[in-house]
């Protein structure tokens, strides 16, 4: 179930159908065999991969809007339990950053309150009900994917979608640099993550080079993912303590959260600049040539 185009794929359409169905099957298997928390994670991950896949062929995929909405909504259905866990995990991470004599005892009442609030969002019965609903939707989606139509052939089905994502990533990077708000970095994170998935899908066009790029994009995804988690934590902290409870612990954690987010922004800056150094047009042209070389060199595997 490798998440990539393969030499034996007879066409882009065949590859898109295969990859989407494999990812749906992976999520369904997790729902069937794994604990709810793991299944929820696998469902969300598979939905993101499928959305990235169809975004790559978006200009040639007539059903893009409807299918993208379906997989987006499935992932959102499972988001509550993920966000509840993230809040507590991020709080613990920031507590570890506390300086001086501050430690877990100082933050314990606040942490207990966050855990209690989170438990209301992740009740087992609710999570299981959502997983069952998603299971039905995934089974339907897997069947539809067998008949998906991609209206162009070869690189013509891929190039425009690839370029559009990297172009939007560049615009998002410019906005985030001018205004480093949590919302702007979240938008940048989404665009860069799509590009990470695209590099993984196309890894076979030049494995040594593409894997290195995907590894750097993975690192960036981790940095920007933590940046987003901290922003989610900050919002939850504000919502829970608007009344002024635990003021000293809240103030300390808010300061630590800001410091960590700013550090992540500094660390991410050179990665972002390197990844976006090549224009969308040049990247599309370069990768398109690599695609043609790869497909010509592996034609015998499709005979």
TrEMBL record:
InterPro entries: CHAD_dom (IPR007899), CHAD_dom_sf (IPR038186). Residues 9-292 form the CHAD domain. This is CHAD domain-containing protein.
């Amino acid at each position: 179930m490798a998440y990539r185009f393969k030499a034996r794929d007879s066409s882009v359409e065949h590859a898109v159908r295969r990859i989407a169905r494999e990812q749906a099957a992976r999520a369904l298997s997790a729902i069937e065999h794994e604990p709810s928390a793991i299944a929820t994670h696998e469902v969300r991950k598979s939905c993101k991969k499928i959305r990235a896949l169809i975004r790559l062929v978006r200009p040639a995929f007539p059903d893009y809007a409807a299918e993208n909405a379906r997989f987006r909504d499935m992932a959102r259905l499972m988001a509550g339990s993920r966000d509840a866990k993230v809040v507590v995990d991020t709080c613990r991470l920031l507590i570890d950053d506390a300086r001086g004599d501050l430690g877990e005892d100082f933050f314990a009442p606040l942490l207990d309150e966050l855990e209690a609030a989170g438990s209301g969002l992740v009740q087992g019965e609710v999570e299981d009900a959502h997983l069952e609903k998603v299971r039905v939707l995934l089974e339907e989606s897997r069947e539809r994917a067998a008949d998906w139509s991609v209206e162009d052939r070869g690189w013509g089905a891929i190039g425009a979608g690839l370029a559009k994502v990297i172009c939007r990533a560049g615009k998002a990077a410019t906005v985030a640099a001018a205004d480093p708000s949590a919302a702007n970095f979240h938008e940048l994170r989404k665009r860069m993550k799509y590009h990470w998935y695209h590099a993984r899908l196309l890894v076979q066009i030049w494995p040594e080079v593409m894997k290195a790029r995907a590894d750097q994009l993975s690192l960036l995804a981790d940095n920007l993912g933590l940046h987003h988690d901290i922003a989610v934590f900050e919002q939850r902290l504000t919502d829970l303590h608007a009344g002024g409870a635990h003021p000293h612990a809240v103030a300390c954690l808010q300061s630590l959260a800001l410091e960590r987010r700013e550090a992540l922004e500094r660390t991410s800056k050179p990665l972002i600049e390197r990844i976006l150094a090549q224009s969308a047009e040049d990247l599309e042209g370069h990768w398109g040539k690599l695609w043609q070389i790869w497909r010509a060199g592996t034609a015998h595997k499709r005979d």
